[in-house]
Design brief:
Largest sheet: 6 strands, antiparallel
Strand content: 15-25%
Number of domains: 1
Structural class: alpha+beta
Order of helices and strands: HHHEEEEEEHHEEE
Number of strands: 9
Helix content: 25-40%
Distance between the termini: 111 Å
Shape: globular
Strand order of the largest sheet: 2-5-6-9-8-7
Radius of gyration: 34 Å
Number of helices: 5
Amino acid sequence: MTPPCTAPARHTRRATAVVLFLLPALAATLALSACQPAGPADPTSASSSPGSTVKTSEFSTLDAAGVDTIRETQAARLDMSSGRLDKAAVRVAADSYGPEINTRGAGKISLSIAAPNGEITAETDRIRFNTTARRADFSEVTYFLTANSLDEYVALIRDGVERYGISEASAEDWISSTQADPDSKSDFSITPGTATGLTVNYDLRYDGGKDTQVIIVHVLPAE
């Protein structure tokens, strides 16, 4: 009579023990994986999904929503680093003449314009965008500077000379003449500067009989 073979039973018991030993470790690994936080979302996914309202640019738009945002935040940043401001880039229709943003009585807007060389910055309560229905860009961005004294006015002019390359000789001639007669009236356009890669013109509107003096600043595209 052949004796019974018991070796397979021992192998079976050993295999079963190994499986039972591994199961708790596998369960713990799966639980830990389930608790791991999700990785960061793709930063471009919000802007590429249809209907997304996430703002992905540092620059302002000039559609109705963009103008409302400028009024609410009292800040506007325009991109003219290419030498021009295209209508399409600020979400304005091709045949649009552009908005006028006026916050007089409600505070001033911190305006910055990225230029080919550096930046143009100002505190202003009125910004205009000039163009024609046939132009794809704006022919001019205009904003207004104000001062409550001749000294403040002169400081604004000299700041423009230093930062934008406006003619120093032209500016100082006007300053000397007006300081000699501070009660005078004068409409004078200083020779423009092009140090930023854009043409910046200071158009002086001075009236010594008024409390507030005005400089109309014209920013024109690079030629």
